[in-house]
TrEMBL record:
Keywords: Coiled coil, Endosome, Membrane, Protein transport, Transport. Its main location: membrane. One of its GO terms (cellular component) is ESCRT III complex. InterPro entries: Snf7_fam. The keyword Transport applies. It is found in: Endosome membrane. GO terms for biological process: late endosome to vacuole transport via multivesicular body sorting pathway; protein transport; vesicle budding from membrane. The keyword Protein biosynthesis does not apply. This is Charged multivesicular body protein 6. Belongs to the SNF7 family.
Amino acid sequence: MGGLFTKSKKESLNSQYVTSQDQAILDLKIQRDKMKTYIKKSEKTIAHDKELARELLNKGMKDRALLMLKKKKYLERMIEKTEMQLDTIQRMVNDIEFATIQSEVVNKLRAGNEALKMMNQMFNLDEIDKIMEETKEGAQFQEEISNMLSGAFNEQDEEDLEAELERLTEQQMDEKLIGLPKVPENDITNEDVIVDKQNIKISKSKKETSKVLAS
């Protein structure tokens, strides 16, 4: 009897252990999938932000265009950090040992949630289009993004962003020049000039002949 109770108790403990371990793995996989989803959305937002920067430059809103480039760079960094967390989570899923990494699981989930929360605030496409508006709401949204990105970049980052803005400006100028009317590809040759002169001479000869006949 005692042996049966002992065996039953051990099976119960093993069952609880497996359940806890499985739950940890499930939580990690859910976190991993969320991160992958947010990374894809962020990549779309980055492309959208760059296009917005171009449109703002066309409207002469250089300060807002620079702000969009800052937001784009910030999201690129967030993606890099999130991808590093993804690698860590994937390793933990592959060779998890719940007894030794339980606290690490919690910390990684917490760090991942913070990253996702920040990324979620940054890639609402419907909201970000407000930056194009020359209204009070557009100005307020500009200030909101500026505050969110405050302190995110060092001096070198700022120089890189200014350089990117300059490259974007030059690119747009080149595109505008390409849109100007082109010079005729077929240049006027000497032969064309000679033919025209001959036509003029023939025309004059006909007029003189007509005058003689008329007299």
